[in-house]
Amino acid sequence: MHKAFTILAPTRLHAGICRPIRARSFRPSNVMMIRSSSGVTLVELMATLAILSVLLGVALPSFAGLVRDTRLTTSINTVHSALFYTRSESIKRGRRVTLCTSVDQATCTAGAGWHAGWIVFDDRNGNGVRDAGESLLRVGEALPPGITVTGNLPVRNYVSYVPSGTTRATSGALQMGTITACSGGRVRQIVISATGRPRVVRDGNC
Q1: Measured between alpha carbons, how far is 74 from 198 in angstroms, rounded to an integer?
Q2: Contact 20, 11 (CB under 8 A)
Q3: d(Cα 116, Cα 109) in Å, to the nearest integer?
C-alpha cells in the first residue's frame, strides 16, 4: 500500500497575518495513472498502421508514375534539343549538318534506335553518315534502361538539316517524320514538320 506524502508550502502574507498555504497530498499511484493516460494503446497503434499502409498503397504507384513521366520527358527533350542544335549549326556553317543514331558515339549506327545514343556531325559530303575527316560536333549518350526512342522510316537513322533550316534526306527530298519515346505505357513524340521544325507532343502509341 502506497503511503501519502505531503508537500510543504511556504506561508502567505495576507492583510498582515501570516497564513500557511494548504498542503497537497499526492500518492505515487496517482502520478502513474496520469502518465499512463497519455499513452497509445495497441488497438490505436494497429489502426494507425493500417491507415498508413492504405495511404502508401495509393501514393507509391502515383510516385512511380511521376518518376517515369519525368525520365521520359527528360529523354525526349534531349533529342529535341539535339535537333535544334543540328539546325542552328547547319545555318551557321552554311552546309549540311546531320544528327544520326550511334552506339559508339563516334560513327552512325543504322537501326540502333535513338535511345542507343546519337552524334551530330558536319556532313560535308551529304551522305547522312559520318566519314573520316568530318567534324564531330556533339554526342548523346545512351538513355536509361526501360526507355525506347525510335523514329518512323524517314527519320529512323538520321535527321539532316541544310542551310535554309529545313530537313532534307540525302536524296534531296523533304525529310518529315515522327520520333516516338515510350516507357511503361507512357509516350512522347517529336513531330518534324515540312519546314524542319520539331515539336514535342503527348499523343501517339507505343
Answers
A1: 16
A2: yes
A3: 9
Strand segments, DSSP code E, in the chain are 5-7, 11-14, 17-20, 24-26, 97-101, 118-122, 136-140, 148-151, 158-161, 177-183, 186-192, 198-201
- Contact between 137 and 120 (Cβ < 8 Å): yes
pTM of the model: 0.69
What does the CA dihedral 198, 169, 99, 152 come to, rounded to 10 degrees?
A: 60
Per-position pLDDT tens, the chain of length 206? 444 444 444 444 444 444 554 545 545 444 444 444 456 687 777 777 777 766 666 555 565 667 778 889 999 999 999 999 999 999 999 999 999 999 999 999 999 999 999 999 999 999 999 999 999 999 999 998 999 999 999 999 999 999 999 999 999 999 999 999 999 888 999 999 999 999 999 877 88
Phi-psi sector, 90: left (phi>0), alpha (psi -120 to 50), beta = alpha
